[in-house]
Amino acid sequence: MLEAPGINPASSSSGSRTSKSWTLPVDIMSFSCSYVTTSSETHDGALIRQVLAKAANCSSAMATLIGGPSAVMQATPEVQKICDEIKHHAETKAGKKFAVFVAKSFTTQVVAGTNYFIKVNVGGDEFVHLRVHKSLPHTGQKLHLESIQTLKTQQDLIEYF
Q1: Where does the record place the Cystatin domain (predicted)?
Q2: Are 135 and 95 in a shared domain?
């Protein structure tokens, strides 16, 4: 059987079909991707290329690593509701009142609950970034404003802080 560096194959057969699974290392984690072959396929470079193509599809589905940030998305009504609930705390931490408090975009991070990193327009060209923690439902805890960054612009990227 042809082996490729970093790919650890395992096989099981059932009739004329052979199920092959490969564990592929990706940065600091690994994941498994299964590929079913027929007994007529040979184990050559073409098969390995097919497996790697299948693995690429698996890895794109795994683009958000557990504990890593999601892609930046446009704010949703749910995110605006979070901002509405946390506005008073943001004003207290910033030391000023905001006449406007409109969520524009956000990213999330799955932890023991969810961290929301939210870009909020607070009037004109002024923005703030919020890090809000939403606990798991069974805890019964309320939303918590973990941190706020002021003096942001629309062009500033939302990053972990």
Answers
A1: 64-161
A2: yes
